[in-house]
C-alpha cells in the first residue's frame, strides 16, 4: 500500500513538472489569435501598397511619351510654286498659305514627303513628348517602340531580381529599394541629351517597376488577416493609378515634368520605409524572432 502511494506521488510530481506543449502558430493563425484588422492594418495597407502606383505611371508613360502631336510648316518661300502649294493643300488639316498643319501620323507617306519639302517646320505645341524632343518621326519612327521594348526587358529583369533580393534581404528592402531606383532614374531622365541615353535610363526605370510589382502585394498581404485579403485584393488600385496619371498628363503635358512628378510619388512611396516593419516570414525564416 505504501509502495502504491509512493508511485502515485511520483507520477503526480512528474506530471506537474512536465511543461505544457507549446502550440505551433503559422503567420495566419498568429494574426487570427491576435484579432482581426485593427488600426495598424488600416494605416499599414495604404502606406505599404502605395508603391504600386509609380509602376502604373511608368507603364502608361510610354503611351504619352510616344505621342506625336503633329507639325507645322512655316516655309513660305518653298510653297511659292503652284505644284507644291496644290500638293500641300491636298493633305493638310488647315491652310492659310502661311502655316500648314499636319496630323501626328509619323508613318504617313504623304506627311513625311511634305516634311522633306519644308525646310522650316516645328511640332505643334499641344504636348512635349520624346517624339517632339528628338524628332522621332518618319525614318526615326521605330525609336519610340524600341524604347518601350527596352523598358519591358528592364521590368522582366526586375521581377527576376526582386524575388531573390526579397528572399535574401527582405521584401521590405525589395519594395522600397525599387522605389528608390525610380526616384533616382526619373530625375536622371530629365537630363537626357539623346534618345540613346534615354533608352538606357528607361531600362532601369523598368527594372525598378518590375521589382515593385513582384513584391508589393506579397509584402502587404502578409500583415492582412486571411478573410480581409479577398477584400483588399479587389481594391482597384491599378485603375486609381491610371486615373491619377491621366490627370497628371492633362495638367502637365510635358514629358520632363511628368518624370519629375513620377519621382515625387516614388519618393512618397519610399519614405514610409522608416516606419513599416519587415516581412514576418522573412524574419521567421532568418531566425530574427526578437
Automatic annotation (TrEMBL):
The keyword Transmembrane helix applies. The lineage of its organism: Eukaryota, Metazoa, Spiralia, Lophotrochozoa, Mollusca. It comes from Arion vulgaris. Residues 1-20 are annotated as: Disordered. GO terms for cellular component: membrane. The keyword DNA repair does not apply. This is Major facilitator superfamily (MFS) profile domain-containing protein. It holds the Pfam family Sugar_tr. GO terms for molecular function: transmembrane transporter activity. The gene is ORF151692. Residues 97-290 form the Major facilitator superfamily (MFS) profile domain. It is found in: Membrane. Its main location: membrane. Keywords: Membrane, Transmembrane, Transmembrane helix. The chain crosses the membrane at residues 42-63, 141-161, 173-193, 199-219, 231-252, 258-276. It is a multi-pass membrane protein.
